[in-house]
Amino acid sequence: MNTSHPTPVPHAHFTLALTRIVATVSVGFVVTQLDVTIVNIALARIATDLHANVAGLQWIVDAYTLAFAVLMLSGGVLGERYGARRLYAAGLVLFALASLACGLASHPVMLIAARALQGAGAAAMLPNSLALLNEACRHDRALRARAVGFWTAAGAISIAAGPVAGGLLIAAFGWRSIFLVNLPLCAAGFWAALAWIPAPRRHAHDSSAPGAPSARSLDVRGQLLAIVALTAFTGAVIEWRPFGFTHWAVAGGFALAFVAGLAFVSFEARARDPMLPLAMLRNRTFSAAVLFGICVNLTYYGTVFVLALYLQHARGQTPLQAGLAFIPLTGGFLLSNIVSGHVVAHYGTRRPMIIGALIAGAGYALLISVDAPTPLVFVLLAFLLIPSGMGLAVPAMTTAVLSCVEPARAGTASALLNTARQAGGAVGVAAFGALAGGAGAAQVVAGLRAETAVSTALLLMAAGLASLVRTDPAHADARRAAPARVNEPESR
């Protein structure tokens, strides 16, 4: 096992050690993002084999995303307290065991529970993978921008490749293979985490060093309130479609989410060690980047869900054909994420966020006028513009978040960003799915047009939010080198 201490990273180029770290933490990002979309292509087979009804299928999808979102903040805090490498490796183990349970499930309830455990493993991995990456690159903003670009590209490609990989695996080995494929990936990531990521010089909870942050305890009360608020809100959105807003479960769910959300903010404002340091939200760049991420995930997750319905129900494609149609998304994400690192290194984070949002918005706008007989080439053009814009903007967004907090708070900052993004994605699937929920081609097409019009407007709003992000990337490094002032609000 490699237990050497981290060494300063040379400027402007990747060392072998940094390349290994980027590859290692990208494994966790790949498996967490892959399981966001890969399951959708298997729902029809799961329904047949496990005799699951529609509500059961919805919870099979949402149990993962919901657990992922509500536990991510605690995953970041625990990583700061006990070490990001330790939590990242533990997350890989839990994700692998949960994936095995998914593959062996014989009843919908078993699969839903296993999916929730997968979400818990993902919540431990994601914020700490980014914290490890930030630690390795924090002395060189240009290098960090490039590394984040590769990390983001890995996750974005896995999201886009989910339907393709799912279709191929199901055709060859059956639906259980989409979960079992995670086992060798997690095993490789676990070995690499022990072998290639240096052991920390001291544990995150050791505050004996001068200027070190004080130890943080797990905010159990805040975590429980976050679970109640997000679960109630997500459940209400899901049930809105079949029952209507006036149904007691739907109205009660929204009311409970509102009350729990207010209580969460109130308790966090008074907590000694809050799960969510509210001072972060007073930072203009941080808040703008988080809202930007919500817009991006809400539109993308919801659109991919509706596009899968459009390709199969309106155009009559098989699940495998529909999955293969998403290949342009993969290529667009790969190229644009890599380019984004270079752009951020030279021009800062604001420009690529604005330009990326406008490019993605143009892709959504192209889909507003589609119909069942619309030439597929026209649709594929949108499939190139959307990931190209997102791939340019998302690494810049992530870099902006990391640049405005201390390295010791990178795990919490990453967790908050990705919690908001996952929650936005869950809402997008539920809300946009309601617009195109019928099996009829006409309703699916009408739903696609409506949701892409909403997505276009949201991406224009995201471009406006990006204009609030600070333009000077060197500011963050100078601020980080200054005496510790945790998450101070920006003065301008």
Q: Could you characterize the architecture of this molecule?
A:
By secondary structure, the chain is mostly helical. It has two domains: 16-201 and 275-481, Up-down Bundle (Growth Hormone, Chain: A), CATH 1.20.1250.20; 220-274. Helices cover 76% and strands 0% of the residues. It has helices at residues 16-37, 43-50, 54-82, 84-104, 108-137, 141-173, 177-180, 182-196, 220-243, 248-270, 284-314, 319-325, 327-347, 350-366, 376-403, 410-435, 441-466, 474-481. Helix 1 (16-37) runs antiparallel to helix 5, helix 6 runs antiparallel to helix 12 (319-325) and helix 9 packs antiparallel against helix 10. It is globular and about 60 Å long. The chain starts with 15 loop residues before the first helix and ends in an 11-residue tail after the last helix.
